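**Folding the chain**
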Amino acid sequence: MNTDRPLALLDHEPLLDALLQLAAVAGSELERAADVTAARRGWAEAPLVLLDESAAQACAEAGLPRRTGVVVLCSGDPPEALWQKAFAVGADRVLTLPAEEPWLISALADATDHPAPTAGRVLAVLGGRGGAGASVFAVALAMTALRRGGGALLVDCDPLGGGIDLLLGAEAEVGLRWPDLRIRGGRVPVSALRSALPGRSARGSRLAVISCDREGPGPEPDALAAVVDAGRRAGDTVICDLPRDLSDAARAALDRAALVALLVPAEVRAVAAARRLAGQLSDRGARVAALVRGPAPGGLRAEEIADAVGLPLLAAMRPEPNLAATLDRGGFRLRPRGPLGTAAKAVLDAAPVSAALSVPIPGRPVAEVPR
């Protein structure tokens, strides 16, 4: 018996058929037990145990040990007798289908994915004007997160940017780009996403990149949301490189971002453009801060520029030496103590730390039901 899969013991055929359909949507394979004897072999180790009313009674009568992660499924309102059987077997919850299908899909997917105990952070980067260098800084941010010892996911949200994989020198690597990605069920299994994308590895962690291609469409909003959510469940730092037109896909990323870094060149025209964009971002409810890139031809200080844009200042950044030549040779190599690396550290330090992952469980806890 495969103890890495959710364990299912159901005698009610319509309920079993519904469960199998939900497992397919979640991308989860079930370990189906024919009887209590078979269920006993994987009872303790299975990440999730799913029973119907008769199976709950049989497992309780067989004396299977109490454990967490036992859920009893039913169709329609659960009768009083079902609550008694769920309590006897030590179930956490009773779920009613189809009303509580969305939670069950998430629970099945999490049992397969083994999500990180702490959610990853989502950061967004965009330029205050065209050519500000936002894509390069997004790559620097992702590489800095990787060097700190955590996984990272770099998400290219701009179909007109030429493909952010070019900046990593990963354009020839095998892996999916946005035109290749098809999302079903609104959720992406973490393991499948990591194995499908090109990227870089360092210190036992991985930077994966989902890039737009030189041809073909960019991300759809639902697909982008599913990919970003998968990165968060994996505990990764997710970096979204956003276009300035704030497409529907870009808005899906904004709605998930803990911090938006608006890269503003130190010049009057860029300040005017960035101020308008900052207002749009703030109206969306995003937490936005300015990252000022020099040199300043008119002698403007970084604090003055941030104040003129109407945002707090994250960091000021000098030009990166030999950046254009490095990019033309193929593949950006970040200097940790250079201007880009130093600014990336400041942005990561300013981003809020995520709380532990939790999924609200519907229904009434079995332990709270009067007996």
Summary: Residues 139 and 306 are 23 Å apart (CA to CA).
